[in-house]
Amino acid sequence: MEGVEQQKVSDNLMADYISSEKAYILELYCNQRNQFLFGPKNPVAKKEPVDWETMTDKARKQLTDAFVELYSKKKEKMLPIVVRIVADRNAKMEAITDAKQKLIKAYEVVRRELSETYPQELVDECLIPRFYYASPKAYADVSAGVSDKSIPLPGYEIRFFVDNAEVGELKDFSLDELSSKIKQLCEENQSENFSVSLKIPSDASEGVVYDIKQILRKGYMLRLNLVQGLQN
Questions:
Q1: In this structure, are residues 211 and 145 in contact, taking their beta carbons and an 8 Å threshold?
Q2: In the chain, at which residue ranges do the beta strands (DSSP E only) sit?
Q3: Rounded distance between C-alpha atoms, residue 155 and residue 4, angstroms
Q4: What's the pTM value of the predicted model, to 2 decimals?
Q5: Strands (E), 23-126
Q6: What's the Cα-to-Cα distance from 117 to each of 60, 64, 123, 129, 145, rounded to whole Å?
């Protein structure tokens, strides 16, 4: 498509934070205008506004402060530092994807800096980039979620693979069609090695993508490659 490039993002749906797991949680919030707050999950008052120019640097400081605090209290019993992403349903996936890349860069910088002072094993264990999604907020006047599951989603394409062989695809599908297709594929293919490639338009919202992911989760299709169209 002219004027559009594609960005592939690995999005393993198994990699989410497990509620029973002990972790130090930082939270990234994105509102419907694609503006960000970042900081400790609690208290909320410690979250700070961040923009594209300052996000990596401020995330670096938050990650460093979290590690130093944990080390002073836990020593060898360190906790992983994970990022919880909370977005308005109308927030654009493009903005969130770009923000994740900046956070990954911050993790890399912090690991390199802290390894000069602290044990490398503890640094690596604590600062492996980890993200998980909370259910999107519905603060906007008009929700970007899919209220009618029979309505087609223009620009969305999904392909299904078993052992790297394509076994089905859908274009401009509705959520009902997606659910039916997953049920059909599971009946026809007795395999746990499903993977999915999901192509989304450049203006895709967090709410719609989240709803699609939830259906994939219910069908135990947990290996997702997200292909996102980005405007040049």
A1: yes
A2: 4-12, 24-30, 36-40, 48-50, 81-87, 131-133, 157-162, 165-171, 194-200, 223-231
A3: 13
A4: 0.76
A5: 24-30, 36-40, 48-50, 81-87
A6: 16, 12, 10, 20, 46
Closest CA to 220 of 160, 135, 173: 160
At 155 the pLDDT is: 93
58-94 residue pLDDT tens: 999 999 999 999 998 876 678 899 998 988 888 998 8
d(CA 175, CA 80): 35
Tokens standing for residue 189: 């293919």
pLDDT at residue 232 in the model: 35
- Report pLDDT for 231: 43
What letter represents residue 89's amino acid? R
- Cβ atoms within 10 A of the Cβ of 161, count? 18
- Given a cut of 70, whether residue 228 has pLDDT beyond it is yes
> b vs e for 41-65, b when ≥16 Cβ sit within 10 Å of the residue's Cβ?
beeeeebeebeeeebbebbbebbbe
